[in-house]
Amino acid sequence: MTDLKWKILAAVQDDLVRVEKALADNLDPYLDLVGKTAGHILFSGGKRLRPLLMILSARLCGYNGGKEIDYSTIFEYLHAATLLHDDLVDGAAVRRGRQAAHTVYGNSTAVLVGDFLLARGLSIASRTGKIEVIDIIAGITENMSQGEIHQLLAKQNLELTEEEYLEVIRRKTAVLIQGACRVGALVADAPAQEERALSAFGYNAGVAFQMADDLLDYTADSKELGKKVGADLREGKLTLPVIHALKNASGPERSEMERIILDKDFSEADFDTFVEMLKRLGGIEYTIQRAAGHVRKAKQALDIFVPGPVKDILADIADYALVRKH
User: Fold this and answer.
1) Is the pTM of this model over 0.85?
2) Rg of the chain's alpha carbons, rounded to an integer?
3) What is the per-residue pLDDT across 75-125, written as a single tens digit (0 to 9) for each?
4) Distance linking the first and last C-alpha atoms of the chain
5) Which of 193, 206, 246, 265 could be a cystine partner for 174, CB 3.0 to 4.6 Å?
6) DSSP of 89-147
7) Which candidate, 319, 90, 49, 44, places its Cα nearest to that of 217?
């Protein structure tokens, strides 16, 4: 574990405990199977990044209404719903180091419990009494669904551009993190300037986290990652390291990369070769630099706020995107 991760965890430990309790309390399913399936993904070791960002954003804007913990569960429920659905769509067998929910409880149950969690998020959003919050949550759900469909359509598309990739990750990842930060500002009745600043922070942090996550498929081992390495490539997902390397590849190099991408049963040796080509063709370094640029933009967005512990934690969370191992 990195020193930065320890620093962040120490600063938010009390909030994490309260978030865990609120996630269990607010779930309140009618059927035990719903609770077991939701709990399988909700309580399997997630970082609670999204709830924490909402809580910290609200406090940065001076919120003291006492409801930030409850409201923050919206974003973990939405995130968990997408993981349930994504693992089923992708045919993933492992999530966070354990069996994916659909392999334990069945496909139908995983889909329906994901739907339940999306609805639960909207129900909690209604408690804020703010139509803007409900609108954001509905918009997030629409965007995440369309982002996943776009990604599905783009599988094994060797001509996928960086612009298309950015649009996919904006919808499937960044809008949820951006929304968490915006809702924090909204529940605090923050001025528009602060809402815009936190929206920009969340968007850029979200893009950086997804780019870093896409790198992990080629730089982490299975134990660190909590899923089999090479999963993105085996599922036909072309992420930024691959897109950039393909762009730089010569004829023979590109042909070899294309062969591996299009072979869902590529060998471990093929994958090792592929990773070496990503490094040699600049795909890894380019992605690191692009992610670092978004981290800088995220931190710059916080410049309008006065210095203090909450602002420091948010900046640390943005930095953590680049140093995390899983």
Assistant:
1) yes
2) 20
3) 999 999 999 998 898 788 888 778 889 988 889 999 999 999 999 999 999
4) 10
5) 206
6) HHT--EETTEE-HHHHH-HHHHHHHHHHHHHHHHHHHHHTT-HHHHHHHHHHHHHHHHH
7) 90
